[in-house]
Specification:
There is one protein chain. This protein has 10 helices and 5 strands; from the N terminus they run ααββαααβααββααα. With about 240 residues, the chain is mainly alpha-helical. It folds into 3 domains: about 70 residues, Multidrug-efflux Transporter Regulator, Chain: A, Domain 2; about 60 residues, Phenylalanyl-tRNA Synthetase, Chain B, domain 1 (2-Layer Sandwich), CATH 3.30.56; about 70 residues. A 3-stranded antiparallel β-sheet has the order 3-5-4. Strands 1-2 form a two-stranded antiparallel ribbon. A hairpin with a 6-residue loop joins strand 4 and strand 5. Helix 1 crosses helix 2 and helix 3 runs parallel beside helix 5. The chain is globular, with a radius of gyration of 20 Å.
Length: about 240
């Protein structure tokens, strides 16, 4: 596994190829300030890293959801500073969940190409446990959720058993559904006439804010839980 702290190693051509976009698109995002500038290395060659790739994937996901460049810029501006590739991948996975389910059936070779690595049977079992990959009946193809694949592949290097992954997924889904139920109740109270277009418009405006609020609250809560478990003092210095 490559370290998050290693030097950026991708040229603009390699970055574009990995992200599935054109070099022109990468440079366009750079001129708009949506993508941070590369690190200039020897011979004045710009190099990009994992965070650039993850941010580019997030931008493309937002575009795929129909957001304008201005809306994408506002979304990115509201992100906490200093997010690494993993944090950005989490945001992209949540954004991808706004879209209708779109599972694609691919060969194992294509699945590995999209994953950017060789996948052994244990890797596939873990991706299946995450509900990112589904085995088809005859074993020649795999159903894959493109929006979650990148995050799922990154989680392959986290030392959790498939059983723990399933249990964690159940916990997260249960709490997510409960939060969604309460938020939908608030939406219904704001639009009592059941105006479908008004509900969709309000939901579209709230979703980026809700995503960021949930992620921030979760990250802080998890940090506090781990500090308590390890016997460390609270971050605010309180007794």
């Amino acid at each position: 596994m490559k370290s998050e702290t290693e030097e950026p190693a991708l040229t603009v051509d390699e970055l574009a190829a990995r992200a599935g976009v054109t070099v022109r698109t990468v440079r366009f995002y750079g001129t708009k300030g949506l993508l941070p500038p590369p690190v200039i290395g020897p011979r004045r060659v710009g190099r990009y890293g994992a965070a650039h790739l993850a941010r580019l994937a997030l931008i493309e996901e937002l575009r795929g959801q129909g957001l304008t460049l201005a809306a994408i810029e506002r979304y990115l501006d509201r992100l906490p500073p200093g997010l690494d590739a993993h944090d950005l991948a989490v945001h992209r996975a949540v954004v991808a969940s706004w879209a209708p389910d779109a599972v694609e059936t691919v060969t194992r070779e294509e699945l590995q190409r999209r994953a950017g690595r060789t996948l052994d049977e244990e890797d596939l079992d873990r991706l299946v446990a995450m509900d990112v990959v589904h085995r088809d009946g005859d074993g020649d193809g795999y159903g894959v959720d493109p929006g979650l694949l990148r995050l799922g592949v990154r989680l392959l290097d986290v030392p959790l058993s498939p059983q723990s992954i399933r249990a964690a997924r159940t916990v997260l889904l249960d709490h997510a559904r409960a939060a969604a139920h309460e938020l939908s109740r608030l939406l219904r109270e704001e639009v009592p006439e059941r105006d479908a277009q008004a509900v969709r418009s309000l939901s579209a405006h709230m979703q980026p804010l809700v995503v960021q609020a949930l992620l921030t609250a979760f990250q802080r809560s998890l940090t506090e839980e781990l500090r308590e478990w390890l016997g460390e003092p609270p971050a605010d210095g309180s007794p």
